[in-house]
Amino acid sequence: PEPPYNEGLNNMKPEDYSDIDHAIPISAGITVRKNLTGRIALESGLVYTYLSSKLKTSGIIHCEGRLGLHYLGIPLNLVVTVWEQPKWNIYLSAGGMAEKGLRSTYKQDRFDKLELISTTEKNPIHGVAWSINGSIGVSYRFTKDWSFYVEPKISYYFDTDQPISIRTEHPTSFGLGGGI
Asked: What does DSSP say about strands 128-141 and 147-157: parallel, antiparallel, or unpaired?
């Protein structure tokens, strides 16, 4: 059977593919932490995330696609220090993030008999993606106000009608953050 197509285009929609391989999300950002008490702090910032997926289907007409999603988020976390030494500390963090999708880029190669038809669509991403997270972190302070940190994290992404991605397929995810 022939695959379904978008109206007006000879493209399959990303969710119509039978074989979808999601890459690990890539995020980078800047966060700041403001101490409220000796052990409790509030953390926020700006985080960019790129989600990508490889898409395939086979049959009479073979299609391969690539979907890239760009998001910009604002995290808000409550951080509680559970153990502290002059240079080292261990902390727990919990909070959430609101992310606005900036752009979706969908590229498709359609192999129809001996012909290759390539198309690209760039669209805005509507709505806001919401998530909650929890983590435990270890930091090493190398100056009065600066530290290196490593932070294993668990996150849950709510169903907010976002484009197909690793977050819509597997809303609970584990990650590892680190930085200065």
From this structure: antiparallel
